């Protein structure tokens, strides 16, 4: 490095002058060896970090080994310290690269020599700590190498948990009536071939209890020649399982005298096969964690066409898929009434009829609600409280400290141990992703798209380098977490793909404690926090916005949506690691040129809302962005950008683009824009709007974008006719046509879109009648018709839109009567009416009353009542995104947007 610099300096000698050159050369002689040595040290320390991270991921936690936990905590601290050194080094390197030429880069290194020089002492300190940790491990006998062996040992608590679930009295079972009935029916039904039945659900949901109720039923067991129950667990040994099965099938003394204790696994399989050959057997495999266990036992349990049954319980959906012909039961959490009954049975078992004293009812109800229907938690907490005095203050104190109790009270270890087993079973790549989920507030709906971006931004998602995008890998992670019953799907899109998840609150509580203990991350739910632990790697502040963000050069995800942010400063160029910038529903009208230096940016969302009900052409405000944004090759989503001639031609550089929204498009841009769009093979969401109501767009002769699932087009169409390319948009699930000026009823032209789930039409049709024929739109769930001045009749045939759930009719002044065919749509759950005629609204109470009597919810609004509209449409969304009370901090334009 020094030689190269001297060559450069010699060429600059004349222009710089001898004295200047001599000063720089002297400094360089002093600095160059240090920098060279430092670069070598950085490579070594980076290698050390990889080993540290792999070690931490591999060893996990020793159950009950406090010395090991304390030592591992120190190892994590060292790994974090190394990460900080590497991050700061990368930041200084990026600053140097930004300066341009080779000479300038090296000159900057000399200028900031003090900043570089401190790394030597930091690295030396880290190396000393690593060496010291090795000495401590040896001194106190902390044997990390024996972790695998220790994991195979079953703790007394684990045995107690399994046995106690099995020994539960059937009279104590509450709920799951349908599931027990179905299981009983399957076990008693006559079917020659061996049947594999599976019961799955999250830890503590009562799988073992339900299985044991069937196993102990004489009505069931007497129909079989023999039966056995074995607990498989995470740490099963095949030979031990086989011997336990033999001990239960055959007299234990006979099995011991036959030498089964010394037989190999294969020989034990043969013994079981021989014994079961001509018998109708019933075997329960409790607590199965992976498919491998069954793949081996499958050979032992012969298929003898005697009507045998095998029942497995598991926490994993993929394991339950082993069951044939959909003989699976998913055990969900209890309803509140069932939870209350079970709690009272345990907490007030000494009182008459298990009645809750009135003075405790309010607190008891809060405790039951906190358990969220999980039988394990209800039974355990209820049993603990049954020994407490029935005194209100004591119970309130217990409830207020419930988080601490779960983490520290030995009497509640049962809950944490059972739930933590699912966490400890996760591979390292999934474990960190799941820990990240615990940073969300209680009962928060975790959105698939958002959490995927956050995981990627945090570096928690692996780059497989096989053509699979990191977003797709993140989706695989979410699927696996739901398969393991750690996340529950609460919403799915039209294709059945999950789009929102929740974490059980007790699971979140325990996982959050682990995240805090391991310094992975910490969440604060209010503004009362005054101090933040400096060693925490991730901080989630659910009610505060940091004052300064541009100095956080490691920042990867910024969400300023629904705030009063007006400008993005040029200093954002420092955020070189930024991947997601969310500025939706803000006041930002233009992005600075410096945004184009953020080469890691993947998602850019920025727009304001002028009309929340989207009844005007420019209801969503576009943002002006630099044309050079098209050089950010990692961009996958942009919305909503202001179109110009140069931008539309350069968009084709963004070949990874999946979602694009572009506004103020002119007809003169269309050809270039479409040429760019065809270069985006992954594009599946597209929104286009024109510059004004007079601009006419012509889409003739354009190549269809066959991968689109979302298409929004706002603006007049040539000749008032739908473009032919729409006939090739067969994958569309969402279509929005606004202000199209269509002269012919468009429904027959759109009826081929059999996958359509959402259809919006605002001011798009000039005619008087719309017709929905039988068989059309079989998957349509959401229909909105608005601002069609001439529309006076809607014909709905029997057999059309058979999945419609939501119908919005807005500002259809000439529509005087409720469409009679609505009575055929039995799935219709909600009808929203805004600015409809007095005659139309009057018919709802009169002649049309029988037509709409099956609709549960009919909401009527006037656009002048902006407060009512905001409260109904907007506040629930804000509450879901930010939690209760979020609307108090919403931007002022949301209440004065002319809605």
From TrEMBL:
Record's keyword annotation contains Nucleotide-binding: yes
Record key words, sorted: Coiled coil, Leucine-rich repeat, Nucleotide-binding, Plant defense, Repeat
Pfam families assigned to the protein according to its UniProt record, in alphabetical order: LRR_14 (PF23598), NB-ARC (PF00931), Rx_N (PF18052), WHD_DRP (PF23559)
Domain Disease resistance R13L4/SHOC-2-like LRR: 549-829
CDD domains xrefs: RX-CC_like
Domain NB-ARC: 179-351
Claim: Ribosomal protein is one of the keywords in the record: no
GO biological process: one example: plant-type hypersensitive response
Domain Disease resistance N-terminal as annotated: residue spans: 20-96
Protein name as annotated: Disease resistance protein RPM1
Protein's gene: LOC103626401
């Amino acid at each position: 490095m020094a030689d190269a610099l001297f060559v450069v300096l010699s060429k600059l000698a004349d222009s710089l002058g001898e004295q200047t050159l001599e000063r720089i050369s002297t400094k360089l002689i002093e600095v160059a060896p240090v920098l060279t040595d430092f670069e070598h040290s950085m490579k070594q320390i980076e290698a050390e970090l990889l080993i540290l991270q792999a070690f931490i991921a591999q060893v996990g936690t020793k159950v009950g080994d406090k010395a090991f936990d304390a030592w591992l905590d120190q190892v994590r601290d060292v790994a974090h310290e190394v990460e900080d050194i590497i991050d700061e080094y990368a930041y200084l390197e990026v600053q140097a690269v930004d300066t341009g030429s080779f000479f300038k880069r090296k000159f900057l290194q000399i200028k900031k020599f003090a900043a570089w020089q401190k790394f030597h002492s930091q690295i030396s300190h880290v190396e000393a700590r690593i060496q010291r940790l090795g000495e401590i491990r040896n001194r106190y006998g902390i044997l990390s190498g024996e972790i695998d062996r220790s994991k195979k040992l079953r703790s007394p608590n684990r045995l107690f948990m399994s046995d106690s679930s099995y020994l539960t009295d059937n009279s104590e079972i509450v709920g799951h009536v349908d599931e027990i009935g179905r299981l009983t029916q399957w076990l008693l039904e006559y079917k020659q071939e061996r049947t594999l039945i599976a019961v799955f659900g999250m830890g503590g949901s009562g799988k073992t209890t339900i299985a044991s109720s069937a196993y102990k039923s004489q009505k069931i067991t007497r129909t079989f020649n023999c039966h056995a129950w074995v607990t498989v667990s995470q740490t099963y040994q095949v030979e031990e399982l086989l011997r336990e099965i033999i001990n239960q099938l055959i007299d234990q003394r006979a099995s011991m005298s036959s030498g089964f204790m010394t037989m190999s696994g294969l020989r034990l399989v043969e013994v079981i096969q021989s014994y079961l050959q001509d018998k109708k057997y019933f075997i329960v495999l409790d607590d199965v964690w992976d498919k491998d266990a069954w793949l081996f036992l499958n050979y032992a349990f012969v298929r003898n066409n005697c009507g045998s049954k095998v029942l497995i319980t598991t926490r994993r959906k993929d394991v339950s898929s082993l069951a044939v012909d959909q003989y699976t039961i998913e055990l969900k959490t209890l309803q509140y009434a069932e939870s209350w009954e079970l709690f009272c049975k345990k907490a007030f078992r000494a009182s008459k009829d298990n009645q809750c004293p009135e003075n405790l009812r309010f607190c008891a109800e809060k405790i039951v609600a906190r358990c969220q229907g999980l039988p394990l938690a209800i039974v355990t907490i209820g049993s603990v409280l049954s020994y407490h005095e029935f005194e209100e203050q004591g119970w309130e104190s217990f409830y207020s400290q419930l988080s601490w109790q779960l983490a520290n009270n030995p009497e509640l270890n049962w809950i944490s141990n059972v739930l933590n087993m699912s966490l400890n079973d996760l591979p390292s790549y999934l474990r960190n992703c799941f820990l990240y989920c615990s940073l969300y507030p209680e009962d928060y709906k975790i959105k698939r798209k958002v959490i995927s971006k956050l995981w990627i931004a945090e570096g928690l998602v692996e780059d497989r380098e096989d053509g699979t995008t990191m977003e797709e890998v993140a989706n695989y992670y979410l699927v696996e977490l739901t398969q393991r019953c750690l996340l529950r799907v609460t919403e799915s899109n039209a294709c059945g793909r999950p789009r929102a998840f929740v974490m059980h609150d007790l699971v979140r509580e325990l996982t959050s404690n682990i995240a805090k203990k391991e310094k992975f991350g910490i969440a604060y739910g209010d503004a009362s926090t005054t101090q933040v632990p400096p060693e925490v790697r991730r901080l989630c502040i659910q009610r505060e916005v940091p004052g300064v963000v541009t100095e956080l050069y490691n920042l990867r995800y910024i969400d300023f949506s629904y705030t009063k942010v007006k400008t993005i400063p040029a200093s954002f160029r420092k955020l070189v690691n930024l991947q997601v910038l969310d500025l939706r529903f803000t006041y930002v009208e233009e992005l600075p040129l410096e945004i184009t230096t953020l080469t890691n940016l993947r998602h850019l969302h920025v727009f304001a809302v002028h009309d929340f009900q989207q009844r005007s052409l420019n209801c969503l405000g576009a943002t002006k962005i630099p044309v050079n944004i098209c050089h950010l090759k990692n961009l996958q989503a942009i919305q909503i950008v202001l179109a110009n001639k140069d931008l539309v031609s350069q968009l084709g550089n963004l070949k990874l683009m999946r979602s694009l929204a572009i506004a103020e498009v002119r007809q003169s841009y269309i050809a270039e824009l479409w040429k760019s769009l065809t270069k985006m093979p992954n594009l599946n969401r597209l929104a286009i709007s024109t510059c004004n109501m007079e601009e006419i767009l012509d889409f003739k002769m354009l190549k269809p974008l066959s991968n689109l699932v979302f298409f929004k087009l706002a603006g007049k169409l040539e000749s008032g006719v739908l473009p032919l390319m729409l006939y090739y948009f067969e994958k569309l699930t969402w279509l929005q046509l606004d202000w199209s000026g269509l002269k012919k009823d468009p429904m027959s032209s759109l009826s081929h879109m059999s996958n359509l789930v959402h259809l919006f039409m605002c001011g798009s049709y000039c005619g008087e009648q719309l017709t929905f024929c039988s068989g059309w739109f079989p998957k349509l769930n959401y229909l909105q018709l608005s601002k069609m001045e001439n529309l006076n009749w809607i014909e709905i045939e029997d057999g059309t839109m058979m999945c419609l759930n939501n119908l919005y009719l807005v500002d259809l002044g000439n529509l005087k009567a409720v469409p009679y065919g609505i009575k055929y749509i039995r799935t219709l759950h909600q009808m929203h009416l805004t600015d409809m005629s007095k005659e139309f609204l009057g018919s709802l109470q009169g002649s049309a009353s029988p037509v709409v009597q099956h609709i549960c919810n009919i909401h009527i609004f006037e656009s002048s009542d902006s407060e009512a509209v905001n409260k109904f449409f907007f506040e629930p969304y804000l509450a879901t995104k930010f939690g209760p009370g979020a609307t108090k901090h919403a931007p002022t334009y949301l209440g004065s947007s002319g809605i």
